Structure to design on (695 residues):
């Protein structure tokens, strides 16, 4: 009797809509397989970085055997620490110089580019649309080699080193401000400029007093991206740097990792690179949220996607 | 604040192939509350944007107090706009928003502050100076937009569906307030809306637009009570339209006899000189539903098809013996309705409320004949052939 009572459906509990089939158990159960895969992915991408960072704090000179904690590869060691080794030290400074200069030059050009393409619509602006995504389309190495030839063969007044590096990085990173600012221009629409013009502003006045303030979050987000991407850049700076003090961190790490100078000081250098990039992204994220706090629909996801340049 | 007289002369706007505004000519008196009414795509907003200066007209003139401003940029016209989206600058406070335009008028600081305060008082937002637009409700934002435009003392204020984004109740309150405000400041208002109730309640005069043309221009009473054609009658509130034929023998002035199916009706309003096929229009509130077989002139038998309860009134749909369905309004005064769905009734159509209107298919053909152009817009979608 008990078994029949079980097999007959309980009137209080409705039959599943699709009886039979493959449906089993709770459809709202945790997706174990997806979760597991996600964790594997995170481990795979973070663990190597974590190990590299860890060994920058190694007491010994090994990059493989942990010998205790120390900051000697950053500041302590009088010869080979990042602070005291002139080539490492210069690499950090050079990276920061390139980051700041490129950002300062690239962002205003990109903003102007975006406004020009989006607001002064002509036949040429259609073609310029393509130029805007230029760096996403062509291989970086191709651009780097082309710029190298250009600078050494034709535009010889630009010397290899900081000048050529900044010029190359500006060209390569122009897409960030152009695309991000343009996306915001589209979402802002034209009504604010029309309102400004209606209230008496000239075309330039409307851009200066209304459009630029409204674009600030996008301008800032793209500045952060240009900076972070410049700091990380290797291909262009490798081609366009000259010897001596114009090698930024990425080039120095590359040229020393197989032979040459090695040891935890290089890990320390890489860690500094990582921290600079992360700090730029974090500052960008926080500042973006602060700048767009007045806009009701802003969530952190939107800030993230803007910072990530999607 | 000077004048505010607006005159549009054969104003036309073409976008690529489509003609958005087709040779509109109208005159708005200084201090008038004038509305452009029509469905979306009728060209009303384009007309307003041309007056504001956001769109250059293809041809035609925009005379503002006698001066053609058609080729001036918006910042050099004595007109200001209240946008449908308000377009308040989100990074500025309410006071800064209102003061925005005054910066271009080289107004001394003290005067600037007092004018901002005055404008905010006018729209009852004193005390909100330091807030940002996103800290205000929709209705308050709309008032800031109004203050921002009025503070410049324009000769004409353009309003592009300013109440469109608000809920129905607030919209009604603001309709009244806007009307009062306009009389108070005495500025010419050019108001664009698709809401016939808004246009009727607020305007001194209005132009009903259809496919880039003015279908009718007049006071709210005129366009509501004496619609020029079936389009206007239908757009301004619910109108019952019926097909009929004019019986020959009328003098063209007095009431005319019409044949609708097997019934003869007398009409005493509208185009009494019309001949042939016409449309008959009657407002729901002018129809009386009576017991079946009530005798008398202008009565048509029918059957109650549907009752729709609307709160203060009930809509009664009656299918006439001629085939067409009429809508009537019955006030819910507590008495039970003497009929229900399926009841046979008699519908009394008073002759003085029955309007003869030109058949839209016929009038569309007339318009086509007038303008042998390359206009691609079909006027009614109905073909006269």
């Amino acid at each position: 009797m008990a078994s029949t009572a079980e097999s007959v459906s309980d009137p209080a509990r409705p039959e599943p809509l699709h009886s039979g089939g493959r449906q089993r158990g709770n459809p709202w159960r945790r997706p174990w397989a997806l979760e597991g895969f996600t964790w594997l992915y995170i481990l795979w991408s973070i663990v190597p970085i974590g190990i590299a960072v860890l060994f920058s704090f190694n007491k010994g000179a090994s990059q493989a055997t942990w010998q205790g904690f120390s900051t000697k590869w950053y500041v302590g060691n009088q010869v080979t620490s990042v602070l005291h080794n002139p080539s490492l030290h210069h690499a950090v400074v050079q990276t920061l110089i390139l980051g700041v200069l490129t950002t300062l030059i690239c962002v205003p050009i990109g903003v102007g580019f975006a406004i020009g393409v989006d607001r002064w619509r002509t036949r040429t602006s259609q073609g310029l649309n393509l130029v805007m995504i230029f760096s996403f389309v062509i291989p970086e190495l191709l651009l780097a080699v082309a710029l190298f030839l250009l600078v050494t063969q034709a535009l010889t007044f630009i010397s290899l080193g900081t000048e050529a590096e900044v010029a190359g990085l500006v060209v390569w990173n122009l897409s960030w401000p152009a695309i991000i600012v343009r996306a915001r221009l589209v979402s802002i629409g034209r009504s604010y400029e029309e309102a400004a013009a209606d209230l008496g502003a000239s075309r330039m006045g409307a851009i200066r007093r209304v459009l630029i303030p409204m674009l600030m979050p996008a301008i800032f987000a793209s500045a952060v991206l240009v900076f972070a991407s410049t700091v990380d850049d290797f291909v262009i700076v490798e081609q366009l740097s000259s010897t001596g003090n114009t090698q930024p961190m990425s080039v120095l790490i590359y040229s020393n990792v197989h032979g040459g100078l090695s040891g935890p000081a290089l890990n320390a250098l890489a860690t500094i690179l990582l921290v600079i990039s992360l700090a730029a992204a974090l500052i960008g994220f926080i500042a973006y949220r602060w700048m767009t706090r007045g806009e009701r629909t802003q969530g952190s996801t939107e800030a993230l996607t803007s910072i990530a340049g999607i | 604040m000077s004048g505010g007289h607006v005159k549009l002369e054969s104003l036309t706007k073409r976008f690529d192939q489509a003609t958005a505004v087709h040779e509109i000519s109208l005159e708005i008196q200084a201090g008038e509350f004038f509305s452009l009414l029509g469905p979306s795509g009728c060209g009303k907003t384009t007309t307003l944007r041309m007056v504001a200066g956001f769109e250059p007209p293809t041809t035609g003139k925009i005379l503002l107090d006698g001066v053609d401003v058609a080729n001036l940029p918006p910042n050099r016209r004595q007109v200001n706009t209240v946008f449908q989206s308000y377009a308040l600058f989100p990074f500025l406070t309410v006071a800064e928003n209102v003061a925005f335009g005054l910066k271009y008028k080289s107004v001394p600081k003290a005067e600037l502050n007092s004018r901002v305060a005055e404008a905010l008082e006018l729209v009852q937002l004193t005390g909100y100076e330091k807030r940002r637009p996103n800290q205000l409700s929709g209705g308050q934002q709309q008032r800031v937009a109004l203050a921002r435009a009025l503070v410049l003392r324009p000769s004409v204020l353009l309003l592009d569906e300013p109440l469109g984004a608000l809920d129905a109740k607030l919209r009604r309150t603001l309709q009244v307030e806007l009307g009062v405000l306009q009389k108070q400041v005495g500025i010419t208002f050019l108001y664009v809306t698709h809401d016939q109730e808004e246009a009727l309640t607020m305007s001194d005069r209005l132009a009903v637009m259809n496919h880039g043309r003015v279908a009718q221009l007049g006071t709210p009473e005129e366009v509501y009570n004496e619609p020029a054609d079936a389009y206007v009658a239908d757009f301004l509130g619910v109108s019952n339209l019926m097909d009929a034929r004019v019986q020959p023998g009328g003098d063209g002035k007095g009431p005319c006899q019409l044949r609708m199916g097997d019934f003869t009706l007398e009409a005493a309003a509208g185009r009494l000189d019309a001949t042939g096929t016409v449309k008959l229009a009657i407002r729901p509130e002018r129809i009386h539903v009576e017991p079946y077989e009530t005798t008398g002139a202008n009565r048509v038998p029918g059957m109650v098809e549907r009752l729709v309860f609307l709160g203060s009134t009930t809509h009664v749909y009656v299918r006439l013996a001629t085939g067409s369905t009429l809508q009537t309004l019955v006030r819910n005064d507590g008495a039970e309705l003497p009929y229900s769905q399926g009841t046979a009734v008699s519908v009394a159509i008073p002759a003085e409320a029955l309007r003869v209107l030109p058949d839209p298919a016929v009038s569309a053909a007339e318009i086509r004949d007038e303008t042998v152009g390359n206009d691609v817009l079909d006027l009614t979608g109905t073909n006269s052939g």
